[in-house]
Amino acid sequence: MIAPPTPQGPVTVRTFTQRLSATPRGARLARHLALNQLDAWGIAHGTDASDTAAVIVAELAANAVTHGRVPGRDFELRLSLVTASVRIEVADTRSGPRPPGPGDVPPPHPLGDSGRGLVLVEALADRWEVLDREPPGKTVRAEIDLPGWLSLVRLGPPPARSTTAPPPDPRPVPPTCRSGP
Questions:
Q1: Residue 31: exposure state from Cβ atoms within 10 A (0-12, 13-18, ≥19)
Q2: Residue 142: enclosing H or E segment and its boundaries?
Q3: CA 147, 152, 153, 156: dihedral to nearest 10 degrees?
Q4: Dist. CA 116–CA 44, nearest whole Å
Q5: Of 139, 125, 127, residue with least CA distance to 56
Q6: What is the helix, strand, coil percentage profile of the chain, to 5?
């Protein structure tokens, strides 16, 4: 008798965590760090997944700085390369009302200056949710599916980039003229 296969949950392959100051500069840095980390994992700059992650990190970090800021406390960026997706988590330390979750984000006022961040997250993320955090605060988690994600999984450190010289020029070298005794 053969036992039926046991369903497996997502397996984390790579993780990156960084605490940042709850300032506009910290939010900007979160986006840059995320893009560089994804590139190091094989999700190249300029790809759909990288561009989508950049927008999501920028919006969630801006929300953490604008709406979740507690003076003297940082916010946290966490990236995880999990089975078939990249997970983005931004946590702040402000307790109180939680932002709306999936399906509950109101449309922004057409002439308003704000209110589009979670609308973008909802449109771009394949899945997302708002979680309570211990110690006080909340975490917004978004996931982006990665087709062909198995090619990103490497055992050991990533291969070194080639630093070899370019191939020689195939054109013939003209003879040199020498004058003298």
A1: buried
A2: strand 138-145
A3: 180
A4: 26
A5: 125
A6: 25, 25, 50
Residues 5 and 7: their CA atoms lie apart, in Å, by: 6
The token pair at 3 is 């036992």
How far, CA to CA in Å, does 55 sit from each of 117, 137, 142?
A: 9, 22, 11
pLDDT tens, position by position, 33-74: 999 999 999 999 999 999 999 999 999 999 888 876 777 788
The two structure tokens encoding residue 167? 């191939």
What would you report as the CA-atom Rg of the chain, rounded to the nearest whole angstrom?
A: 23
Q: Tell me the pLDDT band of 24, cut-offs 50, 70 and 90.
A: very high
Instruction: Please give the structure tokens belonging to residue 73.
Output: 């406390």
**What is the enclosing helix (H) or strand (E) of 18?**
strand 12-21
Own/partner pairs for 119-126, CB < 8 Å, 24+ apart?
120/55, 120/56, 120/59, 121/56, 121/59, 121/60, 124/52, 124/55, 124/56, 125/52, 125/56, 126/85
pLDDT tens digits, 82-124:
888 999 999 988 877 777 677 777 676 676 565 567 788 888 9
